[in-house]
Task: inverse folding
């Protein structure tokens, strides 16, 4: 049976992770390569790198990170943040990432999803969605709206419609982030996750709100998610991936326990 | 020389890197003449069967692969490379290489199951093939696919995996083995399979 994936997410700025992790030994905290290696050995099923570098040579810095990470780990990882065109995708994939995640660039230019899927395959194309809860309306019938710029800009696009449209355009997976839940550590947005996951045939990674293993159990059962993104709860050493997986296994959720 | 066949079907860097992790240099090539000199052949690939077959024929790599197979060179197919070694694929209704008798079929759409089958899953190995030795119970491997290889003979199925149905995830015949999953992305157990392949003399079940 297919295991539910547990995926640590690392935010990278100027080649450094923005949240360190509590290492037991003398590991360079903040080095994305060391963190990737740490999580690979700790049982992560996949990794997500989110590039939040703002400087002009951002691309080169991140490509070098991707290349060094790829040399260290033998599990898939994806890179998102600032992927604007086919060249950006090609650079990241050739440096060794398994997948690229497009978010606002795909909203502004949906043809980018199709172009990426045709050039590199749907399995490489992750649609990142930042979603905010709103009062249902004629424009936003589902009550969930697409937002960009970390939630500051509403796009007037219904999230449910966009998820289905992205599948039609060639997306192979969706990483669904709730802006309302993000950073709260109070649990994933279960209603949103279930709605999107049941509406699309492709896998959905739930993101935003993870604080305890029980939150993961909820989103992987009630929320119908295929994978769960985690950040602070492991970065700060509150939980281990092993501990989370043991908890899920006790709840009869299929997870990868041998690595 | 270990040759990795490049037929423009996806990214081969992870295959090269995993060989490097074993201290081995793989040579990526599109040249049938280089394939002819290989002591081992790795045949990876992601993408659609129709386009892949067209590219293989255009580059003359279909004949090169057939020749390697007939000469008894150990060959490892991965993902799409495990599918188009059969005679036919339901994907694009494509005629394929036919190194093994059988067909590649679409995973059935079962209620609440996601297609593509993407992520980690177990393989139940049948029998004792050299390439799949030393792998612990409960080990999982990374899959990304919507189609699966269905060899004509049951003895060619070396391992099975469950996703809605139970499908062949490791197949082989004579000097050919192939995995639907990606050993190069499957952590140390995947690496074990690659290491086993590098040590394998190519003798397999008839």
Result:
């Amino acid at each position: 049976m297919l295991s539910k994936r547990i995926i640590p997410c690392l935010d990278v700025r100027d080649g450094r992770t923005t949240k360190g992790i509590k290492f037991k030994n003398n590991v360079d905290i903040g080095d994305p390569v060391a963190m990737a290696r740490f999580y690979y050995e700790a049982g992560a099923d996949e990794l997500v790198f989110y590039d939040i570098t703002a400087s002009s040579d951002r691309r080169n810095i991140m490509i070098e990170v991707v290349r060094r990470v790829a040399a260290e780990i033998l599990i898939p990882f994806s890179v998102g943040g600032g992927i604007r065109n086919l060249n950006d995708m090609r650079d990241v994939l050739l440096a060794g990432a398994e997948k690229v995640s497009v978010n606002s660039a795909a909203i502004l230019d949906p043809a980018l999803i199709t172009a990426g899927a045709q050039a590199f395959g749907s399995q490489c194309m992750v649609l990142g969605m930042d979603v905010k809860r709103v009062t249902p309306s004629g424009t936003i019938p589902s009550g969930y709206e697409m937002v960009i710029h970390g939630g500051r800009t509403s796009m007037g696009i219904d999230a449910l419609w966009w998820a289905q449209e992205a599948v039609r355009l060639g997306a192979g997976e969706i990483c669904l982030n709730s802006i309302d839940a993000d950073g709260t550590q109070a649990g994933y947005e279960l209603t949103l996750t279930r709605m999107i996951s049941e509406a699309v045939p492709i896998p959905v990674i739930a993101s935003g709100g993870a604080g305890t293993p029980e939150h993961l159990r909820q989103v992987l059962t009630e929320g119908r998610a295929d994978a769960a993104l985690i950040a602070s709860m492991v970065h700060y050493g509150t939980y281990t991936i092993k501990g989370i997986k043991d908890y899920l296994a006790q709840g009869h959720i299929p997870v990868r326990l041998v690595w | 020389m270990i040759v990795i066949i490049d037929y423009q079907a996806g990214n081969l860097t992870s295959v090269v890197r995993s060989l490097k992790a074993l201290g081995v240099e793989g040579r990526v090539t599109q040249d049938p003449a280089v394939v002819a000199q290989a002591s081992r052949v790795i045949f990876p690939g992601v993408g659609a069967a129709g386009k892949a077959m067209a590219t293989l024929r255009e580059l003359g790599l279909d004949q090169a692969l057939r020749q390697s197979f007939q000469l008894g060179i150990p060959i490892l197919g991965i993902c799409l490379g495990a599918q188009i070694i059969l005679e036919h694929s339901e994907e694009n209704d494509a005629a394929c290489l036919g190194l093994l008798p059988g067909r590649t079929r679409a995973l059935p759409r079962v209620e609440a199951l996601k297609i593509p089958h993407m992520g980690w899953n177990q393989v139940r190995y049948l029998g004792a093939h050299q390439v799949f030795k030393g792998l612990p119970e409960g080990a999982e491997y990374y899959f990304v696919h919507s189609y699966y290889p269905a060899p004509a003979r049951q003895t060619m199925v070396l391992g099975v995996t469950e996703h809605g149905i139970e499908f062949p995830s490791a197949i082989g015949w004579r000097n050919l083995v192939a995995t639907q999953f990606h050993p190069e992305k499957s952590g140390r157990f995947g690496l074990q399979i690659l290491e086993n392949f590098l040590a394998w003399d190519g003798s397999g079940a008839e």
Summary: The longest strand of chain A covers residues 5-13. The longest helix of chain A spans residues 58-72. Chain A is about 35% helix and 20% strand. Residues 5-126+204-250 of chain A form a domain with the TIM Barrel fold (CATH 3.20.20.70).
